[in-house]
Amino acid sequence: MDNKLSFEEVLSREERLVFTNVGDSMMPLIREGRDVLIIEKRDLSRLKRYDVVLFRRQNVKGRGEYVLHRILKILPDGNFCIVGDNCIEKETITPSQILGVLSGLSRDGKPFNMNGLLYKLYVVFWCAPYHLRSFVLRGKWFLSRVLSKIAHKLGIRR
Fold first, then answer.
1. What is the pTM of this model?
2. What is the residue-wise DSSP string for 42-101?
3. Burial class for 69, CB neighbours closer than 10 Å (0-12, 13-18, 19+)
4. What does the pLDDT look like over 81-123, one tens digit per residue?
5. Which of 4, 82, 93, 158 is deepest in the core (most CB within 10 A)?
6. Which of 49, 38, 50 lies closest to 100, judged by CA?
Protein backbone atom coordinates (compact mmCIF):
# COMPACT_ATOMS: atom_id res chain seq x y z
CA MET A 1 0.00 0.00 0.00
CA ASP A 2 1.26 3.46 -0.88
CA ASN A 3 1.70 5.40 2.39
CA LYS A 4 0.59 8.60 0.66
CA LEU A 5 -2.93 7.32 0.00
CA SER A 6 -5.76 8.25 2.37
CA PHE A 7 -7.95 5.54 3.86
CA GLU A 8 -10.74 6.70 1.52
CA GLU A 9 -8.47 6.26 -1.52
CA VAL A 10 -7.38 2.77 -0.47
CA LEU A 11 -10.97 1.66 0.13
CA SER A 12 -12.02 3.14 -3.19
CA ARG A 13 -9.30 1.28 -5.08
CA GLU A 14 -9.18 -2.01 -3.21
CA GLU A 15 -12.41 -2.11 -1.16
CA ARG A 16 -10.27 -3.35 1.75
CA LEU A 17 -7.97 -1.54 4.16
CA VAL A 18 -5.47 -3.29 6.44
CA PHE A 19 -3.75 -1.30 9.17
CA THR A 20 -2.63 -1.20 12.80
CA ASN A 21 -4.58 1.22 14.95
CA VAL A 22 -3.44 4.05 17.19
CA GLY A 23 -5.36 4.73 20.40
CA ASP A 24 -7.10 2.78 23.12
CA SER A 25 -10.76 3.68 22.56
CA MET A 26 -11.60 0.13 21.46
CA MET A 27 -9.85 -1.70 24.29
CA PRO A 28 -10.12 -4.48 25.32
CA LEU A 29 -11.15 -5.77 21.88
CA ILE A 30 -8.41 -3.94 19.93
CA ARG A 31 -4.94 -3.40 21.35
CA GLU A 32 -3.08 -0.30 20.21
CA GLY A 33 -0.28 -0.98 17.75
CA ARG A 34 -0.53 -4.75 18.19
CA ASP A 35 -3.63 -5.89 16.35
CA VAL A 36 -3.95 -5.74 12.57
CA LEU A 37 -7.39 -4.57 11.48
CA ILE A 38 -9.26 -5.34 8.27
CA ILE A 39 -11.80 -2.74 7.17
CA GLU A 40 -14.08 -3.38 4.21
CA LYS A 41 -16.52 -1.22 2.34
CA ARG A 42 -20.10 -2.20 3.09
CA ASP A 43 -23.46 -1.07 1.86
CA LEU A 44 -24.66 1.32 4.60
CA SER A 45 -28.11 -0.29 4.53
CA ARG A 46 -26.48 -3.50 5.80
CA LEU A 47 -24.94 -1.90 8.88
CA LYS A 48 -26.40 -3.11 12.15
CA ARG A 49 -26.18 -2.52 15.86
CA TYR A 50 -22.76 -3.44 17.35
CA ASP A 51 -20.92 -3.29 14.02
CA VAL A 52 -17.55 -1.54 14.40
CA VAL A 53 -17.21 1.22 11.82
CA LEU A 54 -14.31 3.34 10.61
CA PHE A 55 -15.40 6.94 10.13
CA ARG A 56 -13.88 10.32 9.62
CA ARG A 57 -14.48 12.85 12.39
CA GLN A 58 -14.02 16.51 11.60
CA ASN A 59 -11.77 18.31 14.06
CA VAL A 60 -11.52 22.00 14.87
CA LYS A 61 -8.85 22.62 12.23
CA GLY A 62 -11.14 21.30 9.51
CA ARG A 63 -9.03 18.21 8.90
CA GLY A 64 -10.48 14.80 9.45
CA GLU A 65 -9.48 12.29 12.07
CA TYR A 66 -10.05 8.56 11.52
CA VAL A 67 -11.93 6.84 14.33
CA LEU A 68 -13.00 3.23 14.85
CA HIS A 69 -16.06 2.90 17.13
CA ARG A 70 -19.06 0.65 17.63
CA ILE A 71 -22.63 1.36 16.58
CA LEU A 72 -24.88 1.45 19.66
CA LYS A 73 -28.02 2.48 17.86
CA ILE A 74 -29.30 3.31 14.40
CA LEU A 75 -31.35 6.46 14.82
CA PRO A 76 -34.73 7.07 13.11
CA ASP A 77 -33.17 9.80 10.93
CA GLY A 78 -30.62 7.30 9.54
CA ASN A 79 -27.69 8.59 11.61
CA PHE A 80 -25.71 6.38 13.99
CA CYS A 81 -25.12 6.66 17.73
CA ILE A 82 -21.63 5.29 18.35
CA VAL A 83 -19.08 4.86 21.14
CA GLY A 84 -15.71 3.20 21.64
CA ASP A 85 -15.62 0.04 23.76
CA ASN A 86 -13.33 1.85 26.23
CA CYS A 87 -15.28 5.13 26.15
CA ILE A 88 -18.23 6.68 27.93
CA GLU A 89 -19.17 9.58 25.67
CA LYS A 90 -21.50 8.69 22.80
CA GLU A 91 -21.58 10.67 19.59
CA THR A 92 -23.76 10.83 16.52
CA ILE A 93 -22.34 10.44 13.03
CA THR A 94 -23.92 10.62 9.61
CA PRO A 95 -23.79 7.84 7.04
CA SER A 96 -21.55 10.01 4.84
CA GLN A 97 -18.81 9.91 7.52
CA ILE A 98 -18.58 6.10 7.48
CA LEU A 99 -15.76 4.67 5.37
CA GLY A 100 -16.07 0.97 6.17
CA VAL A 101 -16.72 -1.71 8.74
CA LEU A 102 -14.35 -3.91 10.73
CA SER A 103 -14.54 -7.33 9.10
CA GLY A 104 -11.63 -9.00 10.82
CA LEU A 105 -8.57 -8.63 12.96
CA SER A 106 -5.37 -10.48 13.52
CA ARG A 107 -3.96 -10.86 17.03
CA ASP A 108 -0.35 -11.91 17.44
CA GLY A 109 -0.31 -13.05 13.82
CA LYS A 110 -3.39 -15.24 14.23
CA PRO A 111 -6.85 -14.43 12.85
CA PHE A 112 -9.43 -13.50 15.51
CA ASN A 113 -12.85 -14.99 14.72
CA MET A 114 -15.31 -12.07 14.54
CA ASN A 115 -18.17 -14.60 14.23
CA GLY A 116 -17.01 -16.89 17.02
CA LEU A 117 -18.47 -17.54 20.45
CA LEU A 118 -15.76 -15.53 22.25
CA TYR A 119 -16.54 -12.40 20.24
CA LYS A 120 -20.30 -12.86 20.65
CA LEU A 121 -19.91 -13.22 24.43
CA TYR A 122 -17.76 -10.08 24.47
CA VAL A 123 -20.48 -8.12 22.67
CA VAL A 124 -23.25 -9.46 24.94
CA PHE A 125 -21.42 -8.90 28.24
CA TRP A 126 -19.31 -5.79 27.51
CA CYS A 127 -20.82 -3.86 24.60
CA ALA A 128 -24.57 -4.42 24.92
CA PRO A 129 -24.93 -3.29 28.57
CA TYR A 130 -23.62 0.23 27.78
CA HIS A 131 -24.85 1.81 31.04
CA LEU A 132 -23.26 -0.89 33.20
CA ARG A 133 -20.01 -0.65 31.22
CA SER A 134 -20.08 3.14 31.61
CA PHE A 135 -20.42 2.72 35.38
CA VAL A 136 -17.51 0.24 35.49
CA LEU A 137 -15.26 2.51 33.40
CA ARG A 138 -16.05 5.58 35.53
CA GLY A 139 -15.22 3.59 38.67
CA LYS A 140 -11.97 2.33 37.16
CA TRP A 141 -10.87 5.83 36.13
CA PHE A 142 -11.85 7.28 39.53
CA LEU A 143 -9.91 4.58 41.38
CA SER A 144 -6.91 5.14 39.12
CA ARG A 145 -6.91 8.89 39.90
CA VAL A 146 -7.19 8.26 43.65
CA LEU A 147 -4.34 5.74 43.62
CA SER A 148 -2.22 8.10 41.54
CA LYS A 149 -2.74 10.93 44.05
CA ILE A 150 -1.89 8.64 46.97
CA ALA A 151 1.25 7.42 45.20
CA HIS A 152 2.26 11.03 44.45
CA LYS A 153 1.82 12.04 48.11
CA LEU A 154 3.91 9.03 49.20
CA GLY A 155 6.57 9.82 46.60
CA ILE A 156 5.98 6.61 44.67
CA ARG A 157 6.35 6.77 40.90
CA ARG A 158 3.86 4.76 38.89
1. 0.83
2. --GGG--TT-EEEEEEE-TTS-EEEEEEEEEEE-TTS-EEEE-TT----EEE-GGGEEEE
3. buried
4. 999 999 989 999 999 999 999 999 998 889 999 999 999 999 9
5. 82
6. 38
